[in-house]
Amino acid sequence: MPPDDPDASRRTLMGGLSAGLFAALATPAVAQSVAPPATAPVSDGPRLSDPRNAYPRPPFPAQQQDPPGLAGAMDPRPDHGEQSYRGSRKLVGRKALITGGDSGIGRAAAIAFAREGADVAFNYLPVEEPDAREVVRLIEDAGRKAIPLPGDIRDEAFCTKLVADAAQAMGGLDILVNNAAKQRSVDHLQDITTEQFDAVFKTNVYAMFWITKAALAHLPPGATIINTSSVNAYDPSPNIVDYAMTKGAIMIFTKAMAKQLAPQGIRVNAVAPGPIWTPLQPSGGQSPDKLPKFGADTPLGRPGQPAELAGIYVLLASPDSSFATGQVYGAVGGRGGP
Ligand code: NAD
Ligand code: MG
């Protein structure tokens, strides 16, 4: 073989591979014994874990906070992946805006996106500043830019400014996560005030509409939008009728916008969580007497933790899911959902 023939060694290798393949077909036992080792030692990976007891199970201590509540005041504290999420460069250089990024599912997405290499702008209410400070530190610890943008998304002018500020601070925008929400448990329709109905729809539906509308001016082909819907879009609880209606609207907005934006190369998907241990629940989302048993009625027998959803947001944000658009990804502990 001439030493200056660059393809010679490749031809030799391919020939060897063909022979090896033939041998594998003929004698599978021998082929297995010569299979290349796995890329990483088994001890480096996560351990096999039983989903039933991977995280805290009910009963939980009785507890209540004023809405919107703080993750830092919950017992037990939710797990947003602070200690566990390990990135693998799936979102390097990406620019994400997450609403409700201070706590719960939004915080889990913020931590994961940053550890995957993205800069993260996030919105929250000014009273949630203590939670937001922790998220800023977590994003910066991952070596990424954190842009905290407090304000009330029930206001259209604020939503427009939120998107403009995020895009300006990051030099663009290519991941939008519409995740903030209001949920208030009321047993009877007669007791849902027009004021509550309006606030729930403004927070969960109008803000998503206003923010998405403003974001379109910035999103390039390859960008992704991820909306947080709920198991309630499919199997509604009777005590949160107004909230469940908004989650159905979010699901169908996702599917319609996926069709509208596919010709521009922008994907739109949603996540439909089941019961997740976040401040939404002890701050009016559940009735106080039901909270200690929160999640007990799922087949897995416990609520999910925000950290258990992080990988789903990363998957939908990254090109790994490039043929998925208009989809709703459920993580419900075994019942309901898409
Ligand atoms: P969370 O309380 O941690 O997050 C909700 C966030 O919404 C708050 O942190 C707050 O910043 C934001 N928000 C509320 N009103 C706002 C307003 N007027 N202006 C700006 N921000 C406002 O709770 P979470 O459970 O992580 O909620 C995130 C998403 O997950 C929501 O869309 C919720 O409907 C959805 N979800 C939650 C569960 C669950 O069991 N926790 C289940 C299904 C879906
Ligand atoms: Mg919060």
How would you describe what is shown here?
The protein is of the alpha/beta class. It has a single domain (87-331), classed as Rossmann fold (3-Layer(aba) Sandwich). It is built from nine helices and seven strands. It has a seven-stranded parallel sheet with strand order 3-2-1-4-5-6-7, sandwiched between helices. Bound molecules: nicotinamide-adenine-dinucleotide and magnesium ion. Magnesium ion binds at residues 68, 102-103, 124, 128, 131, 279.
Give a quick summary of the entry.
This protein has 338 residues and is of the alpha/beta class.
SSE order and pairing:
Blueprint: H1 8-26, H2 28-33, E1 95-99, H3 104-115, E2 119-124, H4 129-141, E3 146-150, H5 156-170, E4 175-178, H6 194-215, E5 224-228, H7 241-261, E6 267-273, H8 281-285, H9 310-317, E7 328-331
Parallel strand pairs: 1-2, 1-4, 2-3, 4-5, 5-6, 6-7
This protein binds nicotinamide-adenine-dinucleotide and magnesium ion.
Residues 68, 102-103, 124, 128, 131, 279 line the site of magnesium ion.
Keywords:
338 residues; alpha/beta; Rossmann fold; 7-stranded parallel beta sheet; 9 helices; globular; disordered N terminus; binds nicotinamide-adenine-dinucleotide; binds magnesium ion
Number of domains: 1
Helical element count?
9
The rounded Rg comes to 23 Å
The largest beta-sheet arranges its strands as 3-2-1-4-5-6-7
State the CATH class. Answer: Alpha Beta
Topology order in helix (H) and strand (E) letters? HHEHEHEHEHEHEHHE
Q: Low-confidence runs (pLDDT<50, min 5 residues)?
A: 1-37
Instruction: Please state roughly what percent of the residues sit in beta strands, choosing from under 5%, 5-15%, 15-25%, 25-35%, 35-45% or over 45%.
Output: 5-15%
Shape: globular
What is the helix fraction of residues, given as a range? 25-40%
CATH fold-level topology? Rossmann fold
